[in-house]
Design a protein that fits this description.
This protein is an alpha+beta fold. Helix content is 51%, strand content 21%. It has 8 helices and 12 strands. A 5-stranded antiparallel beta sheet has the order 2-1-5-4-3. Strands 7-9-10-12-11 form a 5-stranded mixed beta sheet. The protein has a two-stranded antiparallel sheet with strand order 6-8. Bound molecules: adenosine-5'-diphosphate (ADP) and magnesium ion (MG).
Amino acid sequence: MFQYLRCRLLLSYLTVMAAVLGTSSIAVYVFVTRSHEQHLNNQLLTLAQAAVPSLKDVKTEGLQSINQDLPWRELFKRDQSLEWFDANGKILARKGKLFSTLPLRRTDQIIQQQGQIRTLTIAVYSDSHSSVVANNLQHLELEGYIRASESTKETEIAIARLIVGLGLGKAIALIFIAIGAVWLTQQALEPIEKSFQRLKEFTADASHELRNPLTAISTAIEVMQSHPERIHPSDAKKLVAIASATEQLISLSEDLLFLARTDAAVAPPAGWKHLYLNEILYNTIELFKPCAREKGITLKLQFIPSILVNGEPTQLKRLFANLIDNAIKYTITGGSVIISMVQQKRCIVVRVEDDGIGIAPEYLPFVFQRFWRADKARSPKTKGLGLGLAIAQTIAHQHGGKITVSSTLGEGSCFQVYLPIA
Ligand SMILES: Nc1ncnc2c1ncn2[C@@H]1O[C@H](COP(=O)(O)OP(=O)(O)O)[C@@H](O)[C@H]1O
Ligand SMILES: [Mg+2]
């Protein structure tokens, strides 16, 4: 049980940490790519603006004039290029190696991306009538366009490196977190495991200590009941009630002791041997025949093959006895209980089927829980503590098997015990 808890805790811890790391990596990635882009756009804008004064010269003097204009030449870098256009969008001159083949967009300012080339286009205006600033109106005339381009290859390489770095960092961090998580879960579960262990020991000790006085009471009652003439008639009924309550307490202490001991067991108990399962089933059914007859229930054993399993005979008997007891207990007079056995690969499946009261689908997940009983079964007429199925399941698990249940309310139930073949 603690192994499962440890794995779940570890997995939850790792999932949370991976999510936190993932989110922070994404945040770093978004922040870095945005600032790279911003930087690139600013560079392009500065270059284009620096080239604005040269447009006039390019228009009048042609290509040779661009080699003399200083402001943009100082900013110009290897992977950048500049293009000068007239007001109609006709190319006048170009400088650089990389050019976008996108058609010119004739707007005031626009950024475009084509493959690994980013371009920024700005419109250039000149004052036609120098200043009519009086009424704050300036007549601007479109002179042309400047388009600055830059390769984004280096930025992309830098971002690719960043992704690899973040991925690697995350993987290394996760390895350290996993080591830390193992240690932390160990630390967190140790006290719980210890107190659980103490609780099991306490249950085992308490049930063990209870058994002796209860057996003494039971023996005393038997002795008293063997001399009915000495009992006052008004006390006889009370004595029967005391005897029944004592029996119930003895069986409770035995069940608790069994569960506490099997919970604490690490290795399978000694005394396991190869047994014929059909023999165990025959013997168990024999025990219930009188009870079934008394209740008017047909108890049938379908043809079953001889199959060897490895286990402890008394425990296996107890497992099937609990299932058959339930089947008889929760089936009304005239009903039937059928026990059958089939082989499935390396498993033997024993079916205990009844046409009794059945179990509501919403209750099915709880039937194997300790002390769980369906409301309908809580009537004082049906004796029981709700430990029978828990014990049956514990025994099945101990033998490397399992129990499953299928049931329909009002139609009956079928319990299937899977045990590995020896
Ligand atoms: N064959 C069955 N048919 C209907 N209900 C069942 C059957 N077996 C078990 N149950 C339900 O599961 C509950 C738990 O069973 P169990 O652990 O054997 O406890 P108990 O028999 O002492 O009540 C029962 O109280 C009953 O409600
Ligand atoms: Mg029972």
